[in-house]
Amino acid sequence: xxxxxVTGAASGIGLGIAKAxxxxxxxxxxxxxxxxxxxxxxxxxLQRHSGRMLYVQGDVSSxxxxxxxxxxxxxxxxxxxxxxxxxxxxxxxxRDLLDMTEESFDYVVNINSKATFFFSQLVARQMLxxxxxxxxxxxIINIGSVSDALVSTNRGEYCISKAGIAMITQLLAARxxxxxxxxxxxxxxxxxxxxxxxxxxxxxxxxxxxxxxxKRWGTPEDLxxxxxxxxxxxxxxxxxxxxxxxxxxSLPRL
Length: 254
Ligand SMILES: NC(=O)c1ccc[n+]([C@@H]2O[C@H](COP(=O)([O-])OP(=O)(O)OC[C@H]3O[C@@H](n4cnc5c(N)ncnc54)[C@H](OP(=O)(O)O)[C@@H]3O)[C@@H](O)[C@H]2O)c1
Known about the structure:
Radius of gyration: 17 Å
CATH architecture: 3-Layer(aba) Sandwich
Bound molecules: NADP nicotinamide-adenine-dinucleotide phosphate
Shape: globular
CATH topology: Rossmann fold
CATH superfamily: NAD(P)-binding Rossmann-like Domain
Distance between the termini: 47 Å
CATH class: Alpha Beta
Largest sheet: 7 strands, parallel
Helix content: 40-55%
Order of helices and strands: EHEHEHEHEHEHHE
Number of helices: 7
Structural class: alpha/beta
């Protein structure tokens, strides 16, 4: 059995990733800020797979909480084969760039990029202490976004945070590939999850207008499959590779 930490796996994309990993031979540990009772679907998964799942309530932007999650995983399973930095937030309110507050900037960047970097740093140190298993000491996958390149002036802090993740993936890949730790990124497009529930109409119209090459929203299952592809080790000679999962939304066209 392989051991995965997937942050924010109680809902949305993270839940899709957790399900995909559980269908393979993985144990999955996760952390979200709210009580597990807020997540009925995740809770029933947890009850069904209690021997292979771990839920720790906490905030990934807290160093103490990140350390607590890793400590629980090590106490239970003794190693980490896969880290998926998935937990992320949109701004609480979409505001024009000229009205963005420092508070909102700090909130989004601290969770989306700063926590991604420092959790990777913490877990990479652990992976370096591990023996190689099936070619690698471990694999780290960062969930970025097509918003690292596509501009939305009403949620600039989100775009900045995801552009940061793109560089974090490259930096970690440059530092860790030679140590048998693979680092990859995934850039989702528009995925149907609680995060996008408030902007359904806007994205429905985009889908209808043909802005996506494939006329549908992305699903958490699409992202679960992408993680399985990268975690499976078949891209073992492609450090820092970033997979775009967006139905063609960001493909340049004339
Ligand atoms: N949906 C999309 O269209 C889309 C597109 C591109 C990229 N993404 C990225 O994909 C990732 C997942 O998004 P999603 O759409 O699945 O969102 P979601 O449905 O809102 O799920 C996010 C999960 O992360 C957890 N989380 C958020 N902040 C956290 C924190 N500080 N500490 C611990 N857990 C935290 C949430 O739980 P709590 O609220 O209980 O903490 C929740 O379980 C994010 O990084 C997002 O930016 C999403």
